[in-house]
Amino acid sequence: MIEGEIFPAILSAPNIRCAKAPAAVRSISREHALDFAKLPLEVEPEGLIKEVKALLDTGIPVNAVYDELLAPAARSLGQMWEDDSCDFVDVTMGLWRLQEVMREISAWGFEPSATPENQKRKAAFFPMPGDQHFMGPQMLEDVFTRAGWNALAMTQARRTDIIGLLSMESFNLVALTLSRDCPSAAVRNIIDAMRLASRNPDVVILVGGRMINHNPAVVAEVGADGTGADARAALDLAERLLKSAKVHAHLKR
Prior knowledge:
The chain has 253 residues and is an alpha/beta fold. 55% of the residues lie in helices and 8% in strands. Helix 8 links the parallel strand 3 and strand 4. The protein is globular.
């Protein structure tokens, strides 16, 4: 569970957009990040949340907290586990505490940054059927919703659920997350089925997760339109792809 779900989810923590970000974007110092990385082994979530809130109160943007504080802390725990300098129980508790911090930040409800165009866009996020990594779709849903999209995540979707939804509703974007290795042919098979069933013939399909991050060549093998290393990267790519598709459609007229 640690390798297949919790750790990959934290490493791909999204960069949530905040509509009221300060004009002068501040950054977290490397020294501060290194000090914070030691805390999840000893400090309960309430203490970690207090540390994060203190940073946000000084003007540090939310995306910096994810990129420069929480993700490095998770990587540090993983490294200690690999080096046998930390046991399984300690790593499990440390990662759980970081999860609680991310859940709390999400609950604070930073004001979404929406454009009229994004408000018309629909996205759906699924784990690969049989995959136990449910946090990826949830994080994607959160980030895209904050950007103004009409987004939903199905965290335990069967193949029939995915195909059925795409055949009933029109989506601009669909994303599939893969945390565990599986045959490329199986992924391509479901992507082909998704395109065939989609009410939108121009649907953009992204893939992501640990399997893809470890081997980006899989994107082309399975017939996807692209990938993002994290939720924010997926959002940026989706918006670029849809903008490009819109331009191409206009030129065809």
